[in-house]
Backbone:
């Protein structure tokens, strides 16, 4: 479920970063772009891995992007995304409210891309709503994903960390 959501989000994120960063790389001199906010409707199918129930979710995908190019050629790009007003409904009519936040930061030197730093993090929670008062352990879903990579000026990977905490509660 989260992998489907993340796959679609990542496609949007990559497109936004590539467009923003490529515009800076082709610019001359120091450039500081202002933050740009974009909101688009978002619909996705999935399955709650905690209950194996299929669902359809919808809401708005909100992006806030910014980029900066220094006189020395260092590019900094930041993308923040979150799903606003997202809810999901299972085929049996169970409703979930979805709380989500995602950030991606990319820093690299031009023209050889080294040094390079990237951090990607997201937190997503699917919380079942409107239950009849009977507590059902494990029907809510939580995921925290964090990845960070650093490549030094010599092109050597010095940091390559990944953590993923996924659980039902």
Residues:
């Amino acid at each position: 479920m989260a992998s489907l959501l993340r796959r679609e989000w990542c496609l949007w994120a990559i497109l936004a970063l590539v467009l923003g960063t490529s515009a800076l790389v082709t610019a001359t001199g120091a450039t500081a772009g202002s933050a740009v906010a974009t909101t688009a409707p978002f619909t996705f199918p999935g399955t709650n891995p905690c209950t194996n129930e299929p669902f359809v979710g919808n809401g708005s995908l909100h992006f806030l992007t910014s980029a900066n190019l220094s006189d020395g050629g260092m590019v900094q790009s930041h993308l923040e995304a979150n799903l606003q007003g997202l809810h999901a409904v299972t085929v049996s009519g169970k409703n979930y409210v979805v709380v989500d936040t995602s950030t991606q930061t990319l820093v690299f030197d031009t023209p050889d891309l080294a040094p390079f730093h990237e951090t990607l993090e997201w937190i997503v929670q699917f919380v079942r709503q409107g239950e009849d008062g009977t507590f059902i352990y494990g029907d809510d879903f939580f995921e925290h994903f964090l990845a960070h990579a650093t490549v030094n000026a010599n092109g050597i990977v010095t940091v390559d960390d990944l953590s993923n905490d996924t659980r039902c509660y």
